[in-house]
Amino acid sequence: MAAASHLAALVTMLIVAAAALSAAPVARGQDASASAPAPAPAAPKTITAILTKAGQFTKFLQLLQSTREAEQITNQLKGKSSSGGLTVFAPPDNAFTALPVGTLNSLSDQQKTSLVQFHVVSQVMPSSQLETVSNPLRTQAGETVPGKYPLNITADGTNVNVSTGVVNATLDGTPLYASDRLVVYQVNKVLLPWALYGPPLPPAPAPAPAESKKKKKKVAPDAVADAPAADEAAGTTTSEAAARRGMRGVGAGSSYVAVAVAAAAVWWWGV
């Protein structure tokens, strides 16, 4: 009986040990899953977060914040005012360092706002569409007519050039950030618009005066109508003169006949 009891106890211990061994991998798996790293946070959605993460855009960030354009961009992306999304051209710090002294300090607050808006286009332009953009691009600064805020992009493969009429810059064709609502590119120069930094345009030429049409002298209808009458009057006068001459000729002939008759009568009576 004692041997049977020991055997039963041994079997029980073996069963418990087997159960413990089979449960150990599950526990280890649970520990492994618990220690796995958390998924990466979602990509930043604000222009401030994007440029801060990219680094080397301190000067442009300062302008975005001082003009409150960073807030405007965020609000536009959230609302319906930019249904086509936005594209931002961001110059790095070395682009600002390369500017002549006083380039920014000479601007008023409103002009600084226009300068920042000149770097924002109210449409999403992925790199695949840079070769087919319609120039000049309309930025949030406003008009694209010469002397205002025209912006032209020309692309040839990986070479993308941006021209303002004042500076020619190079665009990095690989965006710093791209989504269906916002695309951010790095541009190697600050985009200086013509309206703020370009020379004044020459005044438009005055329109040519309208050519004066020389008035042709028209013959008065009365004068034209009177012309035949004048001819008739002239003809009548000539006829009358001829008649008078004829009458004078007839009168002279009659006088000669009378003299001849008188002479014959005297001669007759003398005989």
From TrEMBL:
Specify residue ranges for compositional bias: Low complexity: 221-238
Q: What is its main location?
A: membrane
UniProt topology in membrane: Lipid-anchor; GPI-anchor
Q: Where is the signal peptide?
A: 1-29
Compartments where located: Cell membrane
Which SUPFAM superfamilies does the UniProt record give? FAS1 domain
A GO-annotated cellular component: side of membrane
Top-level lineage group: Eukaryota
Please give the InterPro entries that the UniProt record associates with this protein: FAS1_dom_sf, FAS1_domain, FLA_A
Read off the Pfam families from this record.
Answer: Fasciclin (PF02469)
Q: Which UniProt keywords apply?
A: Cell membrane, Glycoprotein, GPI-anchor, Lipoprotein, Membrane, Proteoglycan, Signal
Reported function? May be a cell surface adhesion protein.
Protein family according to the UniProt entry: Belongs to the fasciclin-like AGP family.
Name of the featured protein: FAS1 domain-containing protein
Q: Which organism is it from?
A: Digitaria exilis
